[in-house]
Design a protein that fits this description.
CATH architecture of chain A: 3-Layer(aba) Sandwich
Strand order of the largest sheet of chain A: 11-10-9-12-8-1-6-7-13
Distance between the termini of chain B: 52 Å
Bound molecules: flavin-adenine dinucleotide, adenosine monophosphate
Oligomer: heterodimer
Shape of chain A: globular
Number of domains of chain A: 1
Number of helices of chain B: 8
CATH topology of the largest domain in chain B: Rossmann fold
CATH architecture of the largest domain in chain B: 3-Layer(aba) Sandwich
Helix content of chain A: 25-40%
Helix content of chain B: 25-40%
Strand content of chain B: 25-35%
Order of helices and strands of chain A: EEEEEHEHEHEHEEEEHEEEH
CATH superfamily of chain A: HUPs
Radius of gyration of chain A: 22 Å
Number of strands of chain B: 18
CATH class of the largest domain in chain B: Alpha Beta
Largest sheet of chain A: 9 strands, mixed
Strand order of the largest sheet of chain B: 7-11-6-1-4-5-12
Number of strands of chain A: 15
Strand content of chain A: 25-35%
CATH topology of chain A: Rossmann fold
Number of domains of chain B: 2
Radius of gyration of chain B: 21 Å
Largest sheet of chain B: 7 strands, parallel
């Protein structure tokens, strides 16, 4: 089985993010692997270990993605493709999905694993759109996966009515939830080996496409402004005797907030 | 005139509140409204769908649509969108919406926006607002395409009293079953509990409750208040709470009138799911816990001591 897993480098949301004049202030930001994509990498590596698969990752971004790709090698991914093209600077999920489509078509994979969403966009679109563009089945928000045979996997998805059990015919796309696994910490041996491994880097023309082709010159929507969310107005904190402060808060919920 | 198609949110045969919230907003924008409903045994909901504020009801009702399957669901929505010539296609916030909206957008070559909190229409100019980057930022997005598919975030719009619609049902043809993604079964969790998405009050429990006894203690508070009972991820990872109870970025997004966070530290991924609540109460023994940054009323204390007192005091008020 050939597995393609997608990884994006995203801003570290644990740190402060500031906005000035409608734009994100780059200064002081740090970038990390998208958390859900790390779950995707772990999923791919586990499938390889348990079912002899070949694992390839693809990332679309700048050459500073190399350290993230090496980390994924150290976790056990075998091959890495980096699509690096300045024309993609303003790409949205749909354009990224079309780039991924081109990558898929070059390699003919059986299973594509994406994260359920990228933490910088919080869109949750690229993986699902990729499946539509390829006209292959897709299950999103996957929390478990099991190989049935060469051309089928069984997945569990958290849906509105409960956990859905779906049998998927390959090739297919799954988008994974963070509940699917706990990503491993790379072992020292893996880190040493990863250093020597190459990354296959391509721009759009090497991929046989162009930004016009991908709809990237004429976006369906565009971000015109970033804003800082309004902070919740600071509340009251009560410390001291539990009986007293709890009674006080209940009183306030009833008389001041009028929610009880 | 703008035409807005709302995708009905139906759970276990019941029409959920988000549908009338979205239709109310659509009417307030002066749009012509329609609704598309997909499921099994739902024809009887036609009057409810009209009363929720729709002027046309596109209905796909068939036994084959009983269990959710993204492919056929998408086909029904696309079919309705084409028949109605919708400019805007809105989903209420649900896993179904998140799974289907990007597919519909891809098929219609429309713009797609998830978790929107507001929308403005000014002639041909459509803009949406949405939180992004773990709720650390808000984006304003300009729509260039002639159609927009959007998933509306929980709590974004309010249902208007006295909204009306008209019964005008249109039967959709039933799409073929997706043989490449076959739904085998759905394992439902804790069926009779109050749905988190609808609850006016939500009580959530975190790792601070330690074990089953602690969880049961907090659950009693939820029961007293007839509140939805939620959880942070920590207890779900520990196998102590079911997945369906998770509140947060990868769980449910809730916006109740009153939210209790009991023994929850307030990680950004949890906050992303509840900081739209009207009033937040936190109980935590660590006075530095980040949850206190968003709490309107913060009780610094041991939950094992505080929760029983909370129950007593609330009983006194409620009589
Ligand atoms: C990609 C990703 C997605 C995630 N999605 C979600 C999500 O959707 N929802 C979610 O909740 N988390 C999510 N998380 C996890 C999140 O980062 C936190 O790990 C999680 O929310 C912590 O849960 P907690 O607050 O219960 O536990 P902890 O952080 O361990 O906090 C426990 C709190 O209980 C307090 N406490 C302990 N004992 C007592 C006592 N006796 N009385 C009172 N207080 C006490 C402690 O002071 C502490 O503040 C996600 C993480 C990632 C990486
Ligand atoms: N630039 C990118 N490079 C690699 N994968 C991506 C990229 N953008 C999106 N993806 C994949 O698509 C998923 C969904 O992205 P989004 O639609 O932005 O939420 C992510 O979790 C990634 O797996």
């Amino acid at each position: 089985m050939k597995i393609l897993t997608t990884v994006k480098k995203v801003v570290d949301v644990e740190l402060n993010i500031r906005v000035n004049d409608g734009a994100i202030v780059e200064d002081g930001l740090q970038y990390v692997i998208n958390a859900w994509d790390e779950n995707g990498v772990e999923t791919a590596v586990q499938l390889k270990e348990n079912n002899s698969a070949e694992t390839t990752l693809v990332s679309i971004g700048g050459d500073d993605n190399a350290d993230m790709i090496k980390k994924c090698y150290a976790m056990g991914i075998e091959n890495g493709i980096l699509i690096d093209d300045p024309a993609l600077a303003n790409a949205d999920s749909s354009v990224f999905a079309k780039v991924l489509q081109k990558v898929y078509e070059k390699g003919e994979y059986d299973l594509i694993i994406t994260g359920k969403q990228a933490q910088d966009t919080d869109n949750g679109q690229a993986g699902i759109m990729l499946a539509e563009y390829l006209n292959i089945p897709c299950v999103s928000n996957v929390v478990a996966i099991e190989v049935m045979d060469d051309s089928h996997v069984k997945v569990s998805r958290l849906g509105d009515a409960g956990t859905e059990i779906v049998e998927l015919e390959l090739p297919a796309v799954v988008t994974v939830s963070d509940s699917i696994n706990e990503p491993r910490l790379p072992a020292m041996r893996g880190i040493m080996m990863a250093k020597k491994k190459k990354i296959e880097t391509m721009d759009l023309s090497a991929l046989g496409t162009s930004i016009d082709d991908l709809g990237g010159a004429d976006l369906q929507s565009e971000v015109v402004e970033y804003m800082q969310p309004e902070a919740r107005k600071s509340g009251q904190k009560f410390e001291g005797d539990a009986a007293e402060i709890t009674a006080e808060v209940v009183g306030l919920l009833s008389n001041e907030a009028k929610v009880l | 005139m703008t035409k807005i198609l709302v995708v009905a949110d139906i759970k276990q045969g019941v029409l959920k509140g988000s549908t009338s919230e979205l239709l109310s907003k659509a009417k307030a924008l002066g749009a012509e409204t329609a609704v598309v409903a997909v499921g099994s045994n739902i024809e009887s909901l036609t009057a409810d769908l009209a009363n929720a504020g729709s002027d046309t009801q596109y209905i796909a009702d068939d036994a084959s649509l009983e269990l959710f399957s993204a492919g056929p669901f998408t086909s029904c929505v696309v079919d309705a969108a084409k028949q109605f010539e919708a400019n805007l296609i809105w989903f209420g916030f649900s896993e179904t919406g998140k799974a289907v909206a990007p597919r519909v957008a891809a098929q219609l070559k429309a713009a797609c926006a998830t978790e929107i909190t507001d929308i403005t229409i000014d002639g041909d100019n459509v803009e949406v607002t949405r939180p992004t980057t773990a709720n650390k930022l808000i984006q304003r997005i300009k729509v260039n395409a002639s159609q927009l598919v959007a998933v509306v975030r929980a709590g974004a719009f309010e249902a208007t009293e006295g909204i009306t619609g008209a019964e005008n049902a249109v039967k959709l043809s039933i799409p073929e079953t997706d043989l490449k993604a076959i739904i085998k079964e759905i394992i439902a969790e804790a069926g009779d509990d109050i749905d988190l998405a609808d609850a006016n009050i939500v009580v959530s429990v975190g790792r601070g409750a330690k074990d089953q006894a602690g969880i049961d203690l907090v659950k009693e508070l939820a029961t007293d208040l007839e509140a939805g009972f939620g959880s942070s991820r920590a207890l779900i990872d520990a196998g102590l709470m079911p997945h369906a109870k998770q509140v947060g970025q990868t769980g449910k997004i809730v916006a109740p009138t009153l939210y209790f966070a009991i023994g929850i530290s307030g990680a950004i991924q949890h906050l992303a799911g509840m900081n739209g609540s009207k009033v937040i109460v936190a109980v935590n023994k660590d006075s530095e816990a980040p949850i206190f940054n968003v709490a309107d009323y913060g009780i610094v204390g041991d939950l094992f001591e505080v929760v029983p007192i909370l129950r007593e005091e609330i009983k006194k008020i409620k009589g």
